[in-house]
Structure formats: structure tokens, C-alpha cells
Design goal:
By secondary structure, the chain is mainly α. It has eleven helices and two strands, in the order αααααααββαααα.
């Protein structure tokens, strides 16, 4: 009996120590992440052109901090809290995508878009072109546009469901193998790719390449932002990977680059959906950054790929 009691007590002490270590690691990584966001934005705000709107920049920064805090918070509270957050994100994302179909086949109406809380991105000339296009329902071009919008929207839904399923599976696997710190590493890499690509694009855009990354789909994205943002994140991920994972520096670097590329693909997929539907943001839930889908677009492809890498390794 005494031996059993001692073993039980030792197990409880070990569990408490693991929770304390987990909480400490989460707290430190959160502080490091927020400090990096603040530092990068400080550099950018000092370089920002007078014509740029600093209010918008602060709103975007606020959305980053909000999302990071939410993800790190769910991680700190454990497997169940993370699973609940993933399910809620998927539900909210489906809700935002479903609202795209308020664009009736009888024409794209700005007032209908605005009443649904979706920002219209089209200027008057483009809007009139699309309106005329939808009024000519017997043309091949109109049918192609309709098929394209439905196909891309279904692709976005499939990507959202795959991301949620992969994230839930990863959450369960990492908890079972006591490797939840890998999820913290994944969150850091994917989310900071967003930050670094945005700032690198603003600071270095068109300095080396005159051509944009995807001018038809996402005119604001630059090749410089994609390259230097991804490389910056990969370098920053090295010490984080050393602290949170058993991966070698080379593996951490390769994973970070892969996550950056996947983030760009997910972003472009959603940008294509928004462009074909004639909207700027998926919603207005997050001030300054649209809806929840506008914040998780980089996760859509990256999370399933991270799960595949985890299985492979």
C-alpha cells in the first residue's frame, strides 16, 4: 500500500511538473511572438510612406495579436480547448463561405453585400462589368464565371474541412505522444509567415522584381514579400524549433519554408474565391482584417501538410 501511494504521488508530481513546464513554455513563446510582432511593426512603421494609413496597419497588427493570443490560449488549456477552438473556427468559416452565395444569379448588388457584412472590393467600372455580365445569362462567359465561382467556393470548403480534420487529428496524436510543443511550433511558423510576408512585401516590394506574385488573383502580393518573409520566418524558427522540438536545424528550416509556401497557396486560393465573388473581405468579425477566414487562410494547406510531415518523420 505504501509503495502504491508513493508511486501515485510521484505520478501526480510528474503530471504537475509537466503542466507547469507546458504553461511556462507557452507563456514564454507567447511573449517572444508578441515581441517579434511589435519589433517588426516598429521597423515597418518607421519606414511607412506618409500616404499609407497607419490606422489600418494598427488594426491589422491587432488582428495578428488577437489570433496569436487565441491560438496560444487554447493550446495552454490543453487538448479539449484546442479541439473546441478548431471546431468553432470551422463552423465560423463555413458560415462566412455560405454568405458568399448571397450574390444572386440575377446580379451582384453592393447593398446586398454590405448588408451581409462583407466588404465590396470592386470599383464602379469592374462592378458594372460584372453586373452586365450577370445580366447576360445566355453567354458562355457568364456560365464560365458561375462555374468558376462555385468550383472555387467548393474548393475552399474542402480545404477548410481538410484543415479542421487534420488539425484535430494532429491535436490528438501530439497529446497521446506528449509532443504538444510541436503544435506550438507549427502555430508560430505559420502565423509568423503571415506577419513577415506582409512586412517584407511592404518594405521590399518591387525592389528586385517588377512583376507581382499573382497580379490577377492578389494584386498586393509581391515576390519579395513571399521570398524574404518566408526566409525570415525560417531563420526565426531555428531557435524556437530547438526549444520546442527534437528536429535538427535543417529540418526546422525546411519545415518552415514548406509552411511558408503552403501559406501562400492557401492565401491565393481564398483570394481567388474573393475575387471571383467580387468582395474584399470574407466578413467583418475581426476589425481591420475581415472575417475568421481572412486570418486562417494560411492554415488551410499548411496544417494538412504539417500533419503529413509529422507522419513521415
Amino acid at each position: 500500500m505504501l509503495i502504491t501511494a508513493l508511486i501515485t504521488r510521484k505520478n501526480k508530481n510528474n503530471s504537475t511538473e509537466q503542466l507547469m513546464n507546458l504553461a511556462e513554455t507557452t507563456f514564454i513563446c507567447t511573449l517572444i511572438s508578441l515581441a517579434m510582432v511589435a519589433f517588426l511593426l516598429f521597423i515597418y512603421l518607421n519606414k511607412v510612406k506618409p500616404s499609407d494609413t497607419k490606422k489600418h496597419i494598427k488594426q491589422v497588427a491587432g488582428s495578428w495579436v488577437w489570433m496569436l493570443s487565441l491560438l496560444f490560449g487554447a493550446y495552454a488549456f490543453g487538448e479539449l480547448a484546442t479541439a473546441i477552438l478548431i471546431i468553432l473556427i470551422a463552423i465560423k468559416g463555413l458560415h462566412e463561405i455560405s454568405r458568399l452565395f448571397i450574390l444572386k444569379s440575377n446580379g451582384i448588388k453592393s447593398e446586398t453585400i454590405q448588408s451581409a457584412g462583407i466588404k465590396n472590393t470592386l470599383d464602379s467600372s469592374n462592378n458594372s462589368k460584372l453586373t452586365n455580365l450577370t445580366n447576360t445569362k445566355d453567354t458562355t462567359t457568364y456560365k464560365h464565371h458561375q462555374n468558376l465561382s462555385i468550383g472555387l467556393s467548393l474548393g475552399l470548403i474542402a480545404s477548410l474541412m481538410l484543415m479542421a480534420a487534420s488539425w484535430l487529428e494532429l491535436n490528438q496524436l501530439l497529446s497521446q505522444h506528449q509532443q504538444r510543443s510541436l503544435m506550438l511550433f507549427m502555430i508560430f511558423v505559420i502565423q509568423f509567415n503571415d506577419v513577415n510576408q506582409y512586412i517584407a512585401g511592404k518594405l521590399l516590394g518591387h525592389k528586385l522584381f517588377q512583376r507581382k506574385l499573382a497580379p490577377t488573383i492578389s494584386p498586393n502580393k509581391t515576390i519579395e514579400g513571399a521570398i524574404f518573409g518566408t526566409l525570415t520566418t525560417a531563420i526565426l524558427a531555428l531557435p524556437i524549433g530547438f526549444a520546442l522540438t527534437d528536429f535538427s536545424p535543417i529540418v526546422c528550416f525546411i519545415i518552415s519554408v514548406a509552411m511558408g509556401l503552403c501559406g501562400i497557396i492557401g492565401d491565393l486560393l481564398q483570394s481567388a474565391v474573393k475575387r471571383v465573388h467580387g468582395i474584399k473581405d470574407m466578413g467583418t468579425w475581426i476589425k481591420g482584417h475581415g472575417g475568421i477566414m481572412d486570418r486562417i487562410d494560411s492554415l488551410l494547406i499548411a496544417v494538412p501538410v504539417f500533419l503529413a510531415i509529422y507522419w513521415f518523420l
